[in-house]
Known about the structure:
alpha+beta, 15-stranded antiparallel beta sheet, two-stranded antiparallel sheet, disordered N terminus
Amino acid sequence: MIRKCTLFILLSAICLLGICQSLQEEHRKSAADGRIADKYGSPADDSIFLASILNEEYGFILYENLNYRLGGDSTRHDKKGYAARGWVEDYFPSGKLLHRGYYSDGCLKIYKNYFPDGITERSYKTIDHLRSTMERYYQNGTLKSNVLYKGGVPTKWEDYYPNGKLEYMEEFNKTLDYYIVRKSFYPNGKLHETLQLVKETKRLYEHKKFNDVGVLVEKGKMIYSEIVYDYQKIGKWIIYNDTGKPIKEETYDNGRLNKEKSF
């Protein structure tokens, strides 16, 4: 997923973006007289550069601070010092495409980043004045995450395992205050945990938890509290063993365990 990065990472991203801009200008000059093959480095150079910009959790983060829709507060400038406008491309040391984005007043509106082999690393686009989407990929081309934003806030989020199976998903209500549904999955595709809104007027949810072979091991009701801004257990909860046999009953009142009994 994309989260807040440290100041060090952001500063590093800005420096690397400057390198990319220099590479872009050299690429243009070399392309003009056919010297790309002689001017640029080898695939090994691309690997070294890739390692310098690839964050294991966040991917290519050097452009994210230029995306004002998602909280970026920086702008990109051309070599004359003006805010970047229109389509801009950046390249790896070998001359392979790294980034292609459409800029308006120095900020990104649409863009794609690429791995050295041409596989898309991420793809971002605006849908309208509020909504936008971001897709991120593993280096083998498998979808890693798919996010729908509203006003820069995720309204629907999906994460995937490297094997392509869904790992996690969440969807919020229209005002982005509480979940409509939240689910997590095991790598084998089996459902791990689910939180499903069943009565919106009362912010009432049904929660279930399963083991990795699909057997129900826990179920009960939860309620979203606008006082503590959290989801709290209420009423009776049943706990099961790994064969699906009930072994315990717990009773909750606004998140507090009141009593329990074993079967």
